[in-house]
Amino acid sequence: MALLSSTPPLPIPNRSWTCTTTPSSLTISLPSAARCRHRRRLGSIVAVCTDNQTIPPFTIDHSAVSVAEAFSEDQLWATASLRVRSFYDFKAASFRIEDHKKHLAEREFEALKERIAGKREEFKRVSCINATVPLSQISNLSEDFCSACKFSHDGEERVVIGSLDLNQCMRLPDEIAGRRPEGIGADFARAYLSNVCVASELHRNGLGYAVVAKSKLVAQEWGISDLYVHVAVDNEPAKKLYIKSGFTHESDEPAWQARFLDRPRRILLWTGIPGVQLL
Question: Is residue 114 over pLDDT 70?
Fold first, then answer.
């Protein structure tokens, strides 16, 4: 999973994220998602999950949720801000914490634009897929969240509440590679999910299911036959959710690689995209 670098995150308040899947369409049925606390490096998913949920659940109107690819810079900036909130833990008393959050968001924003624009040689194609909702639907939630992750679309203020990247490539940096498909053209028919996150304030609304489901539709449009995701070996909630979503275990990261990269060991999960076959 590629954000910008393998720089370890600085400590910030624990955030949770859900990573789940359902069949996708424009009108998506959103089942309940599991709770998952996630810590990560920029550049790869590193998850440490727990069943503890400290934030009371907030139920959103599913009919107001839009799940689609993001293209505008305004929305990509909101996406970068959500990822900083989701993937880092800052101590409340950290010196100049807001400046540091802005710096991290700027780095991810620029890297995300480059990946989507095709300027990173290791990626054939990248799509940022977001779940968004009108600001009016969640205006009573955290002001920090609503302000940081807000963008304007067709004159309406909306908020990015869930996100992931779909990466068409042979492998992600510092990650084990998938084995499928094989043969001629295999390098164009494989993709990986990365940067899966949902705003901690909106867990248990099935938003992770929705963005993963949408990613399968986009992958199908691209002619992708095999979709992968990396999960920390001790991340039981995430593993259960992906397996429930149709992913199966393919391989394990070597222990030496995890030690060298100073991170939890990963497993690689795979699912096929229906209706896509290599010639």
Answer: yes
Whether 209 is catalytic = no
Which is catalytic among the residues 192, 209, 228, 242?
242
Q: Report the distance separating Cα 211 and Cα 153, nearest Å.
A: 19
Which is more confident, 121 or 226?
226
Q: Are 43 and 174 in contact (CB under 8 A)?
A: yes
Residue 21 CB-half CA count within 13 A: 23
CA distance 157 to 133: 9
Quick one: the chain helix, strand, coil %, rounded to 5? 30, 25, 45
Q: How many CA atoms lie within 13 A of 206 on its CB side?
A: 20
Q: Which residues contact 269 (CB under 8 A, 6 or more apart)?
A: 228, 229, 230, 231, 239, 242, 243, 247, 248, 249, 250
DSSP conformation class of 176 = P
pTM of the model: 0.78
Q: What span, in angstroms and rounded, lies between the C-alpha atoms of 192 and 122?
A: 13
DSSP 8-state code for residue 188? G
Interatomic CA distance for residues 40 and 46, integer angstroms: 4
Per-residue model confidence as pLDDT tens digits over 1-42: 333 333 333 333 333 333 333 333 333 334 433 333 344 433
For the CA atoms of 270, 209, 9, 119, what is the dihedral angle to 10 degrees? 70
